[in-house]
Design brief:
By secondary structure, this protein is an alpha+beta fold. The chain is built from four helices and four strands. Strands 1-2-3-4 form a four-stranded mixed beta sheet. The longest helix has 9 residues.
Amino acid sequence: MKRNELRAMLLEQPYDALVLTSEISRRYATGFHSTAGAVYLSAKQAVFFTDFRYVEAAHAAIKDFEVREIKAGRAILRLSMAA
């Protein structure tokens, strides 16, 4: 998993957080393959958002990220700020 490497890179940039939405980027960051989802990474949070199809498998496979289910009609950014 690349969480710490991505955080180090983020600290070198003028950004507060990183949002990854492409399948290959999510897999790079988490080591978990899914066809749906997003990764939110900041200095304080590491969250993998996915739909109901992947929640159970993601919880079992991803140890360095919090896993959250995206409910229909909910915005990912709003969910990440609610933590």
